[in-house]
Amino acid sequence: MQPSEKCLRYIGRVLSPDILDAFMNGVSRITARDIDGQDPDRIVVAMSILAERGMDVTSLIAFVQRDWADVLMSAGLAGADWEAVVADELKR
Question: What is the pTM of this model?
Fold first, then answer.
């Protein structure tokens, strides 16, 4: 899965440097099939929100691969307004 450049800059701003490499390594292992073709930035922003809340990267990657929809729900990105929420989040 390849997030946009804007999303990559966001990740660099919001995630702690001590988890950034592991996070990006995990993102690179997630496939379009794992996320049923969902928008990669939506998934990565959701993952970033959960990582900021303290979810460890290994569990987070497994969570996405097991049930991407629950990841979106847990991060508050499952609603019809998800595009606006992601856009606001990327401005942080």
Answer: 0.94
